[in-house]
Amino acid sequence: MQTFKTPVDAFLYWEGIQPEKVFFNQPIKGKNKTYTYQEAGLEIRKIAQSIKNLNIPEKGKIALLSKNCAYWIMADLAIMMGGYVSVPIYPTLNADSIEYILNHSEAKAIIIGKLDDYESQKSGIKNIPKIGISLYGIEEELSWETLAENTSPINNIVNLKDDDLFTIIYTSGTTGVPKGVMHKVSSFAQASNTALQIFHLPDYPRFFSYLPLSHIAERMGIEMQGLYRGASFTFPESLETFAADLESLQPHLFFAVPRIYAKFKEKILDSIPQKKLNLILSIPILNSFFKKKLAKKLGLSEAKIIFSGAAPLAVSVMDWYEKIGITIHQAYGMTEDCALSHFNLPGQNIKGSVGKPLPGVTAKLNELGEVCIKSNCLMLGYYKMPKETKESFDSDGYLKTGDIGEYNHQYLYITGRIKDQFKTDKGKYIAPAPIELEFLKNGAIEQICIVGMGIPQPIALITLSDNAKKLTKEELSTSLTTTLKQINPTLEKHEKVEKIVIMNEDWTMDNGLLTPTLKTKRNQIEKIHQPNYTNWFNQQNTVIYEQ
């Protein structure tokens, strides 16, 4: 497999040997707009020159605000070709958060693409040139389309050096203010080339890009893998068309976060109740046919590897998928280590673990049981945050991940996060993550947050799945109480959960209780609900509805 020093080198290589192959499939209003490698290359070069014409010096910061689309990747490549530093911004952030990132990163311009509600975000963008993509209704002083039509392509593509600052990725902010993670060119190159060695995919593979490209997992696992492999990229048009778009494509690699796998499972069981599913799977002739049909319906019939990451995936969910013929591999990485850490690989998949260290990675547990990582792909640091940068590394140069783990035969098991641990008023520490995973085996629970500061025993705050919302209060109470009675005997005395509290509203990105990567913002949930803990704890019922 060909390896490359930079993503630009990779693109130029594939553009040269397969210019007429489709690079992007971009659905727009029910129709599919395609770009070949050659067509995309010309447009990318024109946008690179357009940025240069703004008199922004090399290594200046260029922000990118858009949902996943062909223009996101073209913009990223244009920024690289001009020798600039990309600052991707989550497309769901509000105006204040956008303004903070633009100011903190010292962005000199911004490219604005596919968004759901730009009107509510645009006040966060002040005093810098804006390049808007008119196709998505973004009308700014500079139009991507006009620039692509009237500008000559860049002649001198900047030769990126290994140690050049490549990108600043702002963390999704589960706790506190977003931090700008700085990565150099060689980190992206090494992580991408490592993936080429360990993941075996067909030539010219099909990739489906839908998780935020502003997050390291999608950027490395989909964008960079696609660029380095000479892939074609397809994007969903909308949430409504997502399932149909995925089914139509049948990608060769699929990556999702646990909540998406839970949603897939819920939709399947909505159509085929578990008893009927068990019956079908018990009939040998039907079993194989049904599994193939179901995999095709999910869009996973040709996926050579299926990953889960960003948060723990319950073994019970992995077992359920295994029964319908789909093997999910859990992976572990973070923005700060360029997602080069631990993976379960095909043929070496141990459920419940996040796999072994990848080539080039050294790992250890410190005295707190914290997972510490060392490789050539670690971040340069947090932008303009020397104190936080220093605190993130130990004296031997290992990155302190903040995750607590344990090893068994080289396989890493994540057992919690240091910052998530809390004390009840009995003074005992509790790690909520393992308990939460046990509760999530109950399909009635969509999201959960185990809390307990200031009360004798922990309580579970939950939101309900769509199917659970159809149950009567009595049915729901019985289901949740049964789960509680099954789990509590397996826990230490101080860990036993006293109450289950059903929240009035779901935790979403809109209400600030979910990150763009669909992780719960524990700090925010605690901030809102902690005043009610004592009242809920003292109520007679085991299952309580938030008032």
Describe the structure.
This protein is α/β, with parallel strands linked by helices. It has 3 domains: 7-185, Rossmann fold; 253-301 and 304-418, Rossmann fold (3-Layer(aba) Sandwich), CATH 3.40.50.12780; 422-545, ANL, C-terminal domain (GMP Synthetase, Chain A, domain 3, 2-Layer Sandwich), CATH 3.30.300.30. Helices cover 34% and strands 22% of the residues. The chain has 18 helices and 27 strands. It has a 5-stranded parallel sheet with strand order 4-3-5-6-7, sandwiched between helices. It has a 5-stranded mixed sheet with strand order 12-13-14-15-16. Helix 5 (118-121) links the parallel strand 5 and strand 6 (130-132). Helix 2 crosses helix 6 (144-150). 46% of the residues are buried. The mean pLDDT is 92.
What's the topology here?
Blueprint: H1 7-17, E1 22-28, E2 31-36, H2 37-52, E3 61-65, H3 70-81, E4 85-89, H4 95-105, E5 107-112, H5 118-121, E6 130-132, E7 142-143, H6 144-150, E8 165-170, E9 180-184, H7 185-198, E10 206-208, H8 216-229, E11 232-234, H9 242-249, E12 253-256, H10 258-271, H11 274-282, H12 284-298, E13 305-308, H13 315-323, E14 329-332, E15 342-343, E16 356-357, E17 362-365, E18 370-374, E19 381-382, H14 386-391, E20 399-408, E21 411-417, E22 422-423, E23 429-430, H15 432-439, E24 445-451, E25 459-464, H16 473-487, E26 500-502, H17 522-529, H18 533-538, E27 543-545
Parallel strand pairs: 1-11, 3-4, 3-5, 5-6, 6-7, 10-11, 12-13, 13-14, 25-26, 26-27
Antiparallel strand pairs: 1-2, 8-9, 9-19, 14-15, 15-16, 17-18, 18-20, 20-21, 22-23, 24-25
Helix pairs in contact: 1-8, 2-3, 2-6, 7-8
